[in-house]
Amino acid sequence: MTTVDLDARFDPRELRNALGRFATGIAVVMARDSEGLMGVTVNSFSAVSLDPPLILFCMARSLKSLPRLEKVTAYSVNILLESQQDVSNRFATAGEDKFAATQWESGPSGAPRLIPAHASFECVPYAHYDGGDHVIFVGRVVHMHAEGEDAPLLYYRGRYHTLAGRAE
Ligand SMILES: Cc1cc2nc3c(=O)[nH]c(=O)nc-3n(C[C@H](O)[C@H](O)[C@H](O)COP(=O)(O)O)c2cc1C
């Protein structure tokens, strides 16, 4: 009989390294409330559902902006272009004035959206789920922009990558 150790614990660095073998794109989640703008770099973005149109991303409970993000009525998820490593780094650095050198506009949902972006999804909150030391945000897409053929920025094993081309 197989036994499963539900209390298995892993060295956090080893677990992070193993999970980092899953190649992803990079997105910046942006929102605004009465205190101002907020934005966070994420690679935990995923498509969820086509009907209704749902996406998700995970936010660490340690994030300074988490309590505010949980209350906003709209946010955007902006998929970064290959040329936007600087944007990824800026929105991954706590304490930075993340919007100082960032071009953005107010989208139809009222959420700020990054310009340019490989694609942008403006969402209203659909659900927040417990995800251990993260909160899983599920958003319902209310507007989207996806134009242009420029390449996306990729993240793999803790480093930025570019798309080498389509597999045969
Ligand atoms: C490539 C990359 C991907 C990231 N992905 C996530 C993520 O999915 N979830 C998360 O909570 N933090 C992620 N981070 C870290 C956050 O961007 C960073 O902790 C955050 O910007 C700090 O925001 P704060 O000022 O609200 O604390 C990522 C960082 C990088 C560089």
Q: Summarize this, please?
A:
This protein has 168 residues and is mainly beta. 11% of the residues lie in helices and 42% in strands.
Count of helical regions: 3
Structural class: mainly beta
The CATH top-level class label of the domain at 23-63 and 74-102 and 116-162: Mainly Beta
Q: Please list the strands of the largest sheet in the order they lie side by side.
A: 3-2-6-9-10-5-4
Shape: globular
Oligomer state of the chains in this structure: single chain
Structure, described:
With 168 residues, this protein is mainly β. It has a domain at 23-63 and 74-102 and 116-162: Roll (Pnp Oxidase, Chain A). The chain has three helices and twelve strands, in the order H-E-E-E-E-E-H-E-H-E-E-E-E-E-E. It has helices spanning 12-19, 66-69, 85-90, and strands at 24-25, 27-33, 36-42, 46-49, 54-60, 75-79, 104-106, 112-114, 119-131, 134-145, 153-156, 159-162. A seven-stranded antiparallel sheet has the order 3-2-6-9-10-5-4. A hairpin with a 2-residue loop joins strand 9 (119-131) and strand 10 (134-145). The longest helix has 8 residues, at 12-19. The radius of gyration is 17 Å and the shape is globular. The mean pLDDT is 96. Residues 26, 40-44, 57-60, 63-65, 88, 91-92, 94, 155 line the site of flavin mononucleotide.
Strand-helix topology:
Layout (H helix, E strand, L loop, with lengths): L11 H8 L4 E2 L1 E7 L2 E7 L3 E4 L4 E7 L5 H4 L5 E5 L5 H6 L13 E3 L5 E3 L4 E13 L2 E12 L7 E4 L2 E4 L6
Antiparallel strand pairs: 1-11, 2-3, 2-6, 4-5, 5-10, 6-9, 7-8, 9-10, 11-12
